[in-house]
Amino acid sequence: MCERCHGTYPNCTRKWIFSATVGDETASSWVGIFDEQAQQMLGVTADEALAQFENQDVYDGYFARALIMEWVFKCCRVKNEIVNDGQRLKVQVVRMDPVDFVSECREMMPALESF
Questions:
Q1: Which residue segment(s) compose the domain that 98 sits in?
Q2: Does any domain span residue 10?
Q3: What is the pLDDT of residues 20-37, one digit of tens each?
Q4: In angstroms, rounded to a whole number, what is the distance separating the alpha carbons of residues 36 and 10?
Q5: How crowded is the C-beta side of 32, counted as CA atoms within 13 Å?
Q6: Letter string b/e over residues 32-60, b meaning 16 or more CB atoms within 10 A of that residue's CB
Q7: Does the pLDDT value for residue 61 go beyond 90?
């Protein structure tokens, strides 16, 4: 049975959809994360996580590991919305990659060598 619409279907595939705070040394922002990026971040599908929901340590571990990972958000959709007479930016993650420390260092070397 579907938790959302209460319909009955022969099978279903659950999808991730959640908000998260992302940030660096300069600022932080709330972003929307959908299924493909959430699977990349958490390392499991929503169905696999639900199967471990009763085993709270394993389930919480998926999110705990995501807290310490570093990502490069390369492409985000940004939309300006007006809510209750105020403006806010709605940001949705479209693409993200784990930080490649070797390539990041290569990009910084010319700037460091110029000093």
A1: 17-113
A2: no
A3: 998 889 999 899 999 999
A4: 23
A5: 11
A6: ebeeebbbbbbebbbeebeeeeeeeeebe
A7: yes
Position 2: which residue type? Answer: C
Find the CATH number of the domain harbouring 38: 2.40.50.140
Of 99, 95, 100, 98, the residue nearest 37 (C-alpha): 95
Whether residue 54 is contained in a domain is answered as yes
Tally Cβ neighbours within 10 Å of residue 108: 10
The whole-number pLDDT of residue 11 equals: 82
The pLDDT confidence band at residue 1, using thresholds 50, 70 and 90, is low
Q: Is the per-residue pLDDT at 97 higher than 80?
A: yes
What's the chain's average pLDDT? 90
How many structural domains compose the chain? 1
pTM over 0.85: no
DSSP 12: -
Domain annotation covers residue 71: yes
Residue 48 lies in a domain: yes
Residues 6+ apart with CB under 8 A from 98: 69, 70, 71, 72
